[in-house]
């Protein structure tokens, strides 16, 4: 399996060559040169496999530069009931109207990002040891990504994490989750500013190429191919559990921000998994829904980016979207370069051609938007009719899924809605919806009272660099 860039750099690369990378050198995103396909026989053979064995089978189609025994061992140590709460890892729960909720948020930080990040931690540790290298992961977070990265990397050999967050601006639960980590290789830096200040510092530090190389700075952001690949597995698992024969099709509805999660669904569908529709559910930040309705992709400015009660979907642009557009335009790298490299940079938007827009249907994409009021109503309804408490992001998914089913826009086949976080992370909105606080897993009782390890700093690039120099052990 070789990987190429959406912008045309065709240097042949294998999985481990891009594992530790973000963007390709030409500014594009990495994708396999062709999607492997799963035939009927393979799909049947996969029925009934435990999650970790299925993960090994799927990953093996994309990774041919890690010895199979090693990969099996990595995967087996990652997807355990101990870490993800049950042997099913991503259990399916039927709701009253034929909708199935696939639980992706039973990992250590109670959000779906754990599924990919936990594997990434194992892969990074393995590959760095193999190369005799070390890595200092630098990132900025407003919540979920940072904690998922820290819980995935804590205690790992050869890896340190420097995670910047806006001081006092994450929820008390999110702060406690991150700052209570006492592992020596995890460094929380709370910047006196907003998320964009933290993000700007990360960009400035990464932009200093001498510093970046010398300190071996890397990232774990959502454009990383390995993260996306890890997510493909649960689409396959969801399909296999919701059906009993390969003649059956299902649809998925995915609460979406950066298009990372649903892009994995696109890969699974492209491999031949019988998925009819992939439904992109957005909140008020409807960059993606607008594209699927109009063909125009328009990045929002800061003033146009709303702070909502499903905050992990509050995005101004969808950083993984280029991967789908690349496929939509027939993998034409010049066209992708024109849309993302030129139009987007110069005008902040692009519109695909009518012919390209017409082709969207062949990829099964549909989209919808929901509001704060929709989320509250859906949390309440799902609690009252199904006895299931869902988080606000999952409620965005359920709102769009149930709306499209009601209007007949999707077939009456199993509809799998991805549950992307547990309600306990968003207690305030849950209380607003149902009038009581969500239950907390016993392991998280008293989280806010634990001692904290965090360095507060002004938004100053040099101070952050000094801190990294001092603690990177280079
Ligand atoms: C990150 C996140 C999302 C959005 O996922 P994308 O891959 O960015 O589309 C949705 N819900 C929750 C809870 C998240 O943490």
The largest sheet, given as strand count, sense and whether it forms a barrel, is:
6 strands, mixed
The CATH architecture classification of the domain at 92-108 and 231-434 is 3-Layer(aba) Sandwich
For the record, the CATH class of the domain at 92-108 and 231-434 is: Alpha Beta
Number of helices: 20
Strands of the widest sheet, in order across it, are: 3-4-14-9-10-13
DSSP strand count: 15
Oligomer: single chain
The low-confidence parts are none
- Which term fits the overall shape? globular
User: How far do the termini sit from each other?
Assistant: 34 Å
Tell me briefly what this model is:
By secondary structure, this protein is of the alpha/beta class. 44% of the residues lie in helices and 15% in strands. The strands form 4 sheets. The chain has a 6-stranded mixed beta sheet, with helices on both faces. It has a 5-stranded parallel beta sheet with strand order 8-5-6-7-15, sandwiched between helices. It has a two-stranded antiparallel sheet with strand order 1-2.
């Amino acid at each position: 399996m070789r990987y190429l860039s959406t912008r045309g750099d065709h240097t042949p690369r294998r999985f481990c060559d891009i594992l530790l990378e973000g963007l390709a050198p030409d500014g594009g995103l990495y994708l396999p040169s062709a999607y492997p396909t799963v035939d009927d026989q393979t799909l049947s053979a996969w029925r009934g496999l435990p999650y970790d064995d299925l993960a090994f089978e799927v990953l093996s189609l994309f990774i041919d530069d890690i010895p199979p025994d090693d990969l099996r061992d990595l995967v087996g140590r990652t997807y355990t009931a101990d870490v993800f709460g049950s042997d099913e890892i991503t259990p399916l729960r039927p709701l009253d109207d034929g909708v199935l909720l696939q639980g992706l948020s039973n990992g250590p930080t109670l959000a779906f990002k754990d599924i990919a990040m936990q594997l990434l931690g194992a892969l990074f540790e393995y590959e760095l040891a193999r190369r005799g290298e070390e890595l200092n992961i630098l990132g900025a977070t407003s919540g979920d990504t940072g904690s998922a990265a820290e819980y995935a990397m804590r205690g790992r050999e050869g890896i340190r994490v420097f995670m910047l967050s806006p001081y006092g601006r994450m929820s008390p639960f999110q702060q406690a989750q991150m700052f209570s980590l006492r592992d020596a290789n995890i460094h929380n830096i709370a910047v006196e500013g907003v998320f964009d200040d933290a993000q700007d510092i990360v960009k400035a530090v990464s932009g200093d190429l001498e510093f970046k190389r010398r300190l071996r700075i890397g990232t774990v952001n959502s454009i990383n191919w390995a993260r996306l690949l890890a997510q493909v597995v649960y689409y396959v698992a969801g399909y296999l559990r919701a059906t009993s024969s390969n003649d059956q099709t299902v649809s998925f509805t995915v609460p979406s921000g950066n298009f990372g999660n649903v892009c994995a669904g696109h890969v699974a569908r492209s491999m031949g998994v019988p998925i009819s529709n992939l439904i992109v559910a957005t909140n008020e930040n409807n960059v993606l829904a607008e594209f699927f309705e109009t063909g125009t992709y328009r990045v929002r400015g800061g003033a146009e980016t709303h702070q909502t009660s499903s905050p992990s979907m509050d995005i101004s642009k969808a950083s993984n979207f280029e991967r789908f557009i690349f496929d939509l335009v027939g993998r034409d790298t010049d066209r992708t370069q024109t849309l993302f490299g030129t139009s987007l940079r110069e005008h902040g938007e692009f519109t695909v051609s009518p012919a390209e827009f017409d082709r969207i249907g062949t990829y099964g994409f549909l989209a919808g938007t929901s509001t704060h009021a929709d989320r509250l109503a859906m949390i309440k309804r799902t609690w009252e009719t199904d006895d299931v408490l869902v988080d606000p992001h999952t409620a965005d998914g359920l709102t769009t899924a149930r709306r499209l089913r009601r209007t007949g826009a999707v077939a009456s086949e199993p509809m799998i809605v991805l549950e992307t976080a547990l309600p306990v992370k968003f207690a305030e909105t849950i209380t607003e919806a149902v009038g009581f606080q969500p239950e907390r897993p016993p392991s998280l009782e008293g989280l806010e009272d634990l001692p904290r390890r965090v360095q507060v700093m002004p938004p100053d690039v040099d101070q952050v660099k000094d801190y990294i120099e001092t603690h990177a052990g280079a």
